[in-house]
Each structure stands twice: as C-alpha cells, then as structure tokens.
Amino acid sequence: MSCSTLPSRFLVAACVSIVMLHLPTAAFPSGGARHFEAPLSSLPRSQRLDFKVGRGFFRRLWVTAPASTQAADGLGPLYSARSCMACHPGNGRGHPPEATADNAISMVLKVDIPPQDQTHEQALRSRHVSNIPEPTYGLQLQEFATPGHAAEYRLGVSYQEVPVELADGTMVSLRKPTYEAKELGYGPLHPEARLSPRVAPQLIGLGLLEAIDERDILAQADPEDLDGDGISGRPNLVWSRESRRRMLGRFGHKASLATVNEQSQAAFASDLGMSVPLFPDAAGDCTPAQVDCRHAPDGNSPQYDDLEAHHKITNLVSFYVSHIAVPAARSDDDPEVRAGRTVFERIGCAQCHTPGYVTGSVTRAKATHGLAISPYSDLLLHDMGPGLADKRPEGEADGREWRTAPLWGIGLTPQVSGHSYYLHDGRARNLLEAILWHGGEAQAQRDAVIALDRGSREQLLKFIESL
Maximum distance among all alpha carbons in the chain? Predict the structure, then answer.
C-alpha cells in the first residue's frame, strides 16, 4: 500500500521514505544560494509566467511617494525593508543583527500591550484582532523611515552564554538573548509594552502547507493531553480578513495567519508600510500619535483601486510564494541518515514534527493538490517552556506557545541564507543548540537528546540536516 492510499487521515513515520520520493520538486541551478527558487514541478507551463512575474514583484524595490512611476511607489513612511526579498534573501530564513553596525532587516520586533479596558477585552474575545497595539508604535517597531520622518527605533541585542553538559561530557553553550528597543523616535514605550523579536522564516512549500486538509491537522490536536504523552498541541483559530470568518492559523511563528495571501499582504502592510486590499491604510502601522506619519503623501492611485499595491500585484506575489518548490531530501540512502531517522522517531520528535501528509484540494492553487509531502510539522501550537517564551500572546497562542516549525529544507540553510541561525529569533547557532532550547512539551525530547551517546546524536543531526 502506498502512502497516498493510506486510510488514515494523516501519514505516519512509517511512510517517511516514500513521502520523500514524492516531494513536488523542480530542477534548479546547482548554486547553493538558489535551492529555494524553483517552482513546483506540478505547476503547468501555462502558469510559469505568473510565477516569474510574481517573483519580479517580490524582488521589487519600492520607493517613496510621490514618484514618477505610480505603480512602484508608496513605501513607508515607516518600514522595515524596501522589498520582500530583503527579508527573505533566496527565499530563505532571516538572521538577528550580528554586529553593532548591522541593522535588523530580516528580523523585526513585534510589540503590543495587554488589554487596558473592556473595549480591548471585547476586541480580543471577538478574535477579530490578535493583539492590542502599543499606543504610539502600533504592532511592529520600524527601523527605517522615508525622508522627513524619524525611524521608530534601533534594535539592541546582547547575549549571555549558558553552558549545557551532555551525558557524554560534551559541553554546549547556548546564547540567551536580551532585546532592547533603542533610540526610540517617538517617545517612550507604554510601561506594559511586550516585545517579541522574529526572524523572517523560509518560504518554501507554503502553498503545500495551505493545501493540507484542515481535518488532518486538527486530528493531531490534544489540548488536554488525553493520551498522557505530554504533548498537547492545539490550533490557533484566527480571524481571516480574506474569508471573513475564523479559520485555522497555519502561518507565522505563532500560526496567526490563515492563508498565504493573508501572510503576504500582512507583510506588505507591516514590513513595507504599503496599502493592499486586505490592509488598505496607506500609513501602514503608523498610529494616531504619529501625526506627521498619518498625513504624509501616499502612493494610493485611482487607477490602482486607491491602493499602493493593488490586487493584481498582491495576487501575483501570493501566487509566486504559494508555488515555491521544496528541494528533495538528501542522502536518504546513507545508513547514518537512516539511523538518525530511527533516533528521531524513537525519542518522540515526530510527535510534533509530523513527517507527512497528502494535500487536499480546497485551495485555489491546483498545482499543490493531491501531493504527498514531508513538512515535518503538525502546524499546531505547543508550549515550548520558559526558555523560549516571549510572554506576548497572539490570538489564541499564549506567551509560551509557538507553532511547530516545518523542518523541510532546514539542512540547506547555510547554503541558501549564508548562516546557521535557527528558532524564532535566531538565537541558536546550530541545530543542536536549537534542540537544547526546547522545553515545555518538548522537555522529554530535549532530555533524551542530552542522554544520547555521541554516535546517536551525530546520526540524529545528520538526519535533520538531510531534510
């Protein structure tokens, strides 16, 4: 029986090797930095032009309004990057600032405040909003500004080294970060402001994740841990601006966005400061307290639906992002990799990093339908313990919960992104450090890795690097 014909609603570890062979990949140049740039092999030739045009808009450098080319203006006034590609070079993951002179660019600082009154409480209960904006700075601090405006802040980060001893005597040093919003351009933050740093995630396979049948994801949820295995994943049910209803969140570090299109348009609004169909405010994240920002010239144009990036642009960018292929797993015939997969399954990593699914057929991206895929994620929220807690809720996710990050393509990060920083804020400098930061529901798996002998640990890491 093949994996695609299994009667169960989602695939299990036994089918991993078969699923890997069915990944919807495509040929791509041999250069390591371009591993994440190919379209799905299932994308018809008739739609390849849309993929290329969408990629062009993804790479476009937007400019300040007013400009002679109205189709390319509208940046800011406050922004984190001038293009989508600036945050996701090569469609890979971002990184934290690495030196005093390094700006955040591929890392942003989310901000909010706890509810202050009944109006705030009601807004959160309605689930139409996931957070209450900080009164002056909104929901995201912006490190750049167009001429005539002050940037909101500069990100400061420092690290404390925390030693961890493994069972075989190996010493590993984890770096514990402390973040600070420096050089605030519009006065002090609210005294209860909550900050959460986020590096830009890799973009491969997003359309495939969207195409997974919702039932297959919800079937894995066990919020009360009724089976007693210590794993209690739960969905983040969020308000979809696109569908005007609550939906399963799949995207973002806390699964706070339901669709690829919403994720893409939210980035236009929050990172570029541009008006788009789902977020039509031309001032982006500027708040009423930022008067000059609210009254700055914008790029809204009547011929473009009074928006700065109208639906044709956002649709093409979403199309591009939805159809980026996942490179096939590597070295699957290597005995060490196979042994590492056995360790991965034996110590329980697959309980959250679900190996495989067969995608459904309810999305508009037909090229993603009916495919066996291996994302290694259940897309659910899990309590990851105090070490990784940002203390900033998001929708139904609390301050200790994070969505299980998909592992596919993770071994290519050094080639694509030029670094090996992992987790939501890039604190882990390699995969072993990332594992050792796991706590909460993953504490047992972390402890199991600490207890491994050197050979088994190296096999586990080799398997993860092969994905």
Answer: 67
Lowest mean per-residue pLDDT among 31-45, 189-203, 413-427, 433-447: 31-45
Enumerate the domain spans of the chain: 3-47+202-235+324-466
Grouping H, G, I as helix, E, B as strand and the rest as coil, residue 7 is coil
Q: 41: closest CA among 346, 305, 342, 367? A: 367
Residue the block writes with tokens 């308000």: 239
Residue 327 phi/psi, 5-degree rounding, is -60, 145
What pLDDT score does 101 carry?
55
Q: How far apart are CA 162 and CA 280, in angstroms?
A: 45
Residues in the chain: 467
Mean pLDDT computed over 384-392: 97
Which phi and psi (to 5°) does residue 410 adopt? -65, -30
pTM for this model (two decimals): 0.92
- Whether the predicted pLDDT of 12 surpasses 90: no
**Six token digits for residue 26:** 């495509």
